[in-house]
């Protein structure tokens, strides 16, 4: 699909039904505290349109993650016991590695779990979720499986409850917690001993504590957007929008759409001659 040019509203817009007439302000409107439902819906839709052009293998993995997996688990719940099979967990982990940071050892560790262990552990975790909507205990239970930490555990739980359980993705965590620099365009500031000069390279610990914070922030955002939209907004939708917002900001920065220091486009900046101190002598 052709990219939505957020800085040129006159450009051809593939999402005609969304009526984008003004480019979202990357510093104010696209942060979790203030993003409007219309802007949120735009990026969520962009994610879905992008995924329609995936190769067959990746499309199959995405279908398992967003459609088939939740449907299968829901049907098993109706039949009396919700769980995931080992092959399903392995495919979900493969999806995670394809679209996130690739860790070859992770797939091997997950594969070392027995069929019985995976079914029993996922069943126990899902059962905990039916009693307590807070995912902390279920995350802890799933983390007993080899190769399953809080991030992967949240992915499995999202198949059980895609409405309220967010997947612990890098993009969603960074957007919710370090949102001042979504466009690569914020001033440096000290935050807990670290300089906030961009969130793309800040380290995530993938801890249960971090996930608890992300779950709380996702829930608050979901409730606000649902109220504004007049219809339910799910955690999976927020995950999709955050991914697209983060990737679009990175693409804009790498393509020179915005200069991080001056807010000028590269083309505009090129009109100015270099300062005498920076002008090099021709040889």
Characteristics of this structure?
single chain; about 280 residues; mainly alpha; 11 helices; 2 strands; about 0% strand; disordered N terminus; disordered C terminus
Describe the protein:
Helices cover 53% and strands 1% of the residues. It is mainly α. A two-stranded antiparallel sheet has the order 1-2.
Rg: 21 Å
Tell me roughly what share of residues is in helical segments.
40-55%
What is the overall number of helices?
11
Helices and strands, in order, run as HHHHHHHHEEHHH
Structural class: mainly alpha
Q: How many E strands?
A: 2
Strand content: under 5%
The end-to-end span amounts to 46 Å
What is the molecular shape? globular
Report mean pLDDT, rounded to a whole number.
Answer: 78
Strand order of the largest sheet: 1-2
For the largest beta-sheet, the strand count, sense and barrel status come to:
2 strands, antiparallel
The low-confidence runs, each spanning 5 or more residues with pLDDT under 50, are 1-28, 180-197, 256-283
Topology summary:
Layout: H1 37-51, H2 56-79, H3 86-99, H4 104-111, H5 115-131, H6 136-142, H7 150-160, H8 170-177, E1 190-191, E2 194-195, H9 208-229, H10 235-254, H11 266-269
Antiparallel strand pairs: 1-2
Helix pairs in contact: 1-10, 2-3, 2-7, 3-4, 5-6, 6-7, 8-9, 8-10
